Amino acid sequence: MNSDIENILYSEEKLRETVEDLGRRITRDYKGKKLLLLSILKGSVVFLTDLMRHIDLPCEIDFMAVSTYGSGVKSSGTVRILKDLDRDIRDYDVLIVEDILDSGMTLSYLMDLLYGRDPSSIKICTLFDKPERRKVDVYADYSGLKVPDEFIVGYGLDYAEKYRNLPYVGILKREVYEKKE
Ligand code: IMP
Ligand code: MG
User: Fold this and answer.
1) Which atom of ligand 1 is nearest to the CA of 133?
2) Is residue 169 part of a domain?
3) Ligand 2 mean position to 80 CA, how many Å?
4) Is the minimum distance from the CB of 110 to ligand 1 under 6 angstroms?
5) How many domains in the chain?
């Protein structure tokens, strides 16, 4: 285990089971629809690439990059679009694929923005949810695993761009970020 990790919260196996289950539910719900998986860079990339292989339907993928956090562990509260979609989403059934729903600021902002572009439907699939930290009312249609109010890394999630490649999800030792803040 990486020495900056306090403990492993979810193992590779648990993550695999969870992602498979989400894929099955999406497959069941999106039959006959024009599914666009919209991955929010960069945290959800690992999740997206696993999830899409468990969706047994035609689908397309696209990416948006937004910034809420900078390199710290607390949300700045402002959302900036760093990269927009490559396409017009009218007529698409958009499923936002997000790594973690925390304060909800990012997804609330994105939902408003994307609704204005007139898609057929728009829903949210998040792998992790920290319900205790919610500041705005956002509801995930598909939600994988609940997370306590701790800072987690791995399986795509970072601290200061590191740890995304860990195959499991762990709680980051406080000393790693407290000495820098
Ligand atoms: P929200 O706008 O506060 O819901 O923030 C969501 C974004 O914050 C996620 O997409 C992550 O990039 C980041 N984030 C929130 N909590 C964590 C965490 O525990 N570890 C890593 N990134 C996190
Ligand atoms: Mg993110």
Assistant:
1) 3
2) no
3) 12
4) no
5) 1
